[in-house]
Amino acid sequence: MTAAAELGTTPPRAMRRDRWWARAWQDGVEPLLGFAIVIAAWQAGSSLSGVPKVLFPSPADVVWALLDLFNTGILVEYVKLSLLHYLTGVAIGALAGVALGLAIASNRRVSDLLMPLVNFTYAIVEVAWIPLLILWWGYGPSIIIVAVAYVVASPLVHNVVTGVLSVPPVYGRAIRSLGGGSWSVLREVTLPAILPSVFNGVRVGAGFGFRALIFAEMIAQQEGVGYLIFTSAATQQTARTVAGMVVMGVLWLFLDRVYLRPLERASVERWGLTSDAGER
Amino acid sequence: MELSGLSSPVKIAVRGLTIDYPGAAPAERQRVLDGVDIDLHDGEFLCVVGPSGCGKSTLISAIAGFLTPEAGSISLDGKRVQGPGADRGVVFQEYALLPWRSVLDNVALGLKIRGMRREEREAKARHFLELVGLADVAAKYPHQLSGGMKQRAAVARTLTSEPEIVLMDEPFAAIDAQNRLILQEEVLRLWSTLGLTILFVTHSVDEAVFLGDRVIVMAPHPGRVASVVAVDIPRERRRWPAIGSDPDFIRLRDDVLARVRAEHGARRQ
Ligand SMILES: Nc1ncnc2c1ncn2[C@@H]1O[C@H](COP(=O)(O)OP(=O)(O)OP(=O)(O)O)[C@@H](O)[C@H]1O
Ligand SMILES: [Mg+2]
């Protein structure tokens, strides 16, 4: 995270003192510096090159487009819808992936039956399903949600299966010798033990799911951030398209920082799972 | 084979216990225990020693109910054992404390599974944590404890469920020599104050003779009972380090050691 942490146990004296301005620079300014450089270069490029705005809007144009979108209420409306569909899809996909993974890992016969199917569908990208779904259900949010859920669930199944199979059997034996049955083993051992792999799987899946969201909205929806990006370009409102892209990036940073990372840290670090879960 | 002279009733009766492990191919099927007979009496401290791979852990797993015998039977108070249960508590070498639960929750786990109310089970768990000297780490998580503390917590967890018998599979094998002696004394103290019945597997002949009323020596390939040695050293003399120079202790230890050595690498026929 911070430079001091990367340097190991004995940071140089100047850093150990940790002046507030040094910390503010590290945490607040440095991460934004990259953005500032890109924006400056972009502004310079667009004003010096003389390419028409329709093809190459400047940062200022994009800011105006954002303000305009905000004032008309479209931005808030679309972001809300995109987020709602996205989070619903992630939740459904996470539940489905965990349930399917548990079923596969718990029983040899279920595994023989389902695993080839899961591997097969894993290879079919969500985009390939969308035309078919449109044919069946027409345009609408259900397609978006299904596309996101699908993308989240399919890698998660693998994570859950390997997670369950790597739980040391001695935990289950301990529970049974304390009088517990399969249900207690699931609740007290299997579910908590696979939590890190579930978080990991959901985090990876959520990244792909976010792309799936935008893509599905572009082709199967008439609202949302993806639709905004696509339809604005089609109507030559290029600044709006770029504004949509910026919103997309900011949304992802927000989701990752606010939900995914803290969630992962909270459980995994407190239990010391990073260091000794693998202990026999 | 029984030299017990023990008057108390038999708690666990193992009769003709035969266990196979399936190999990769049917031909590789391996007989790990072959016709094992053992009586564990009520209130007894029975130790099992034997060369590595002779099936000591397999014996514990079978009595705990994790394995299905090929032939023979195991009964507790005359009732045939089928599958694991809270009447046979197990202390594992690898502790098996749940990393995602605090020490207190780990120790209260058996009571929680039984459906006891939170305040009630925590009070009881605290009582047993106190007995093993861990009252002040109740809120910690297992990874924050030393090996010795983890094993104390694991013992407390098993005892909290008040099992009929306690099975211990090399519980102190991973613990340093100094703490190991302390834990041996403590397990003896718990055994006598709580009136426990214990089957204790160990690699260490010293440990077995220090702890046991009797010591069973097992032979390998396939695993079976080679001999049973009664340890007639009065309980009040079982203190470290004094017992190390006790002539009776030395005599018995050398006797058991010779029997284990004789079995080392032995193979029937
Ligand atoms: N799950 C298993 N599958 C197949 N064979 C096994 C399995 N567990 C143990 N064995 C074999 O059974 C035999 C007895 O193993 P066991 O673990 O009971 O021995 P042990 O006396 O406890 O040894 P140690 O003193 O090293 O702990 C060994 O030959 C071992 O290779
Ligand atoms: Mg063993």
Automatic annotation (TrEMBL), chain A:
User: Which is a Pfam family this sequence falls into?
Assistant: BPD_transp_1
| Entry's localization field | Cell membrane
Under the heading SUPFAM superfamilies, the entry gives: MetI-like
One GO term (biological process) = transmembrane transport
Q: Which CDD domains match?
A: TM_PBP2
Give the residue spans that cross the bilayer. Answer: 83-105, 117-137, 143-167
As given in the record, the signal peptide range reads none
Q: Which family does it belong to?
A: Belongs to the binding-protein-dependent transport system permease family.
Q: What's the protein called, per UniProt?
A: ABC transporter permease
Q: Please name the source species.
A: Alsobacter metallidurans
From TrEMBL, chain B:
Q: Which PROSITE patterns match?
A: ABC_TRANSPORTER_1, ABC_TRANSPORTER_2
Q: Which Pfam families match?
A: ABC_tran
Q: Which GO terms describe its molecular function?
A: ATP binding; ATP hydrolysis activity
Q: Origin, by domain of life?
A: Bacteria
Fetch the CDD domains from UniProt.
ABC_NrtD_SsuB_transporters
* SUPFAM superfamilies linked: P-loop containing nucleoside triphosphate hydrolases
Would the keyword Transferase turn up in this protein's UniProt record? no
The similarity comment for this entry is:
Belongs to the ABC transporter superfamily.
The protein here is known as ABC transporter ATP-binding protein
Write down the species: Alsobacter metallidurans
